[in-house]
Amino acid sequence: MLYLFELSRFIPVNAVSYLLNNGRQDIFHLR
User: Fold this and answer.
1) Positive or negative, the Cα torsion across 23, 29, 30, 31?
2) How far is the C-alpha of 16 from the C-alpha of 14, rounded, in Å?
3) What is the structure's pLDDT at 17?
4) pLDDT digits over 3-30, tens only?
5) 31: three-class secondary structure by DSSP
6) DSSP 1
C-alpha cells in the first residue's frame, strides 16, 4: 500500500512538471 501511495503521489508531480516544461517551450516558440 505504501508503494502505491508513493507512486500515485510521484506520477502527478512528473506529469505537471512535464506539462509546464512543454508549455514554456510552446510560449517561447510563439514569441
Assistant:
1) positive
2) 6
3) 84
4) 777 877 778 887 888 888 887 776 666 6
5) coil
6) -
Say which residue the cell 509546464 belongs to: 20
Rounded to two decimals, what is the model's pTM? Answer: 0.40
Cβ-in-10-Å burial (0-12, 13-18, 19+) of 4 comes to exposed
| Residue where the block lists cell 517551450 | 25
Give Rg (Cα) of the chain: 14
